[in-house]
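Sequence and fold:
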Amino acid sequence: MGDPAGIGPELVQYVVRKLGRKIPLGLIGKTNGIRPGKPSLKGAWQARQALEESVRLLRAGEICAVVNGPVSKDWLGKVGFRFPGQTEFYAKSFGVKSDDVTMMMIGPRLRVALASTHLSLRQAVLGLRSKQIVRAGKHLGETLQKLGVRRPRIVVCGLNPHAGENGKYGNEEKRIVQPAIRELKRKTDFLISGPESPDAVFRMAWEGDFDGVVALYHDQGLIPAKLLDFDRTVNVTAGLPVVRCSPDHGTAFPLAGKGKARPDCFIAAVHLARRLVKLK
């Protein structure tokens, strides 16, 4: 259910009522003593315990996939949760290096993979390496193939305005991005292009020119994903031995308990998790 003070519990209850007869769903989490819209240490502990319980159930084979409700990274940090996000938590829990998993946003018309996730912009730019782009491109292409795209058309964003303009605005495209693109072309059968100017590429993908986009840092990918497909975009962690999805929205504490939260994204996450389980 995510943080019990957020919109997760009411969305989960709606999803169970709507889909529970068609899909075998289990509920992980508690709301005991928690008021909607009032985050607390107790609620954060319950959210953390639910995450840990989901790992236990996945390892035991009692569940096939997990769909996480939204959590507060700030409140989780106050109860000893030492991970930037749930993506990194599941990677560590299953013995996978954080550099070997990819955070992806899968929507109806825009599919985005991130080369890096929860880092400051400075860290993301200074730490960018070709291997991160290659990993994100491979995971995106493999996921798109699972979803029925025979030969995915994947475009890689540039880091700088106008993808560097041949070095005028930075040389990261030549030093880092172009070598990654060449490696992806050598090692995969995907149709790879780029580096493309990030101010145009997402619109092109949304209109159907590409099947997926590799973004080089968190907000470069998530801003267009949430703008264009917010109500139906699903966060997927690729590279894990299990299926893990979540709706692409936060706890929305001010909306909790008021019946205003939309369930579309959570429903989409459950359907996508089920689909990926069948394709494993």
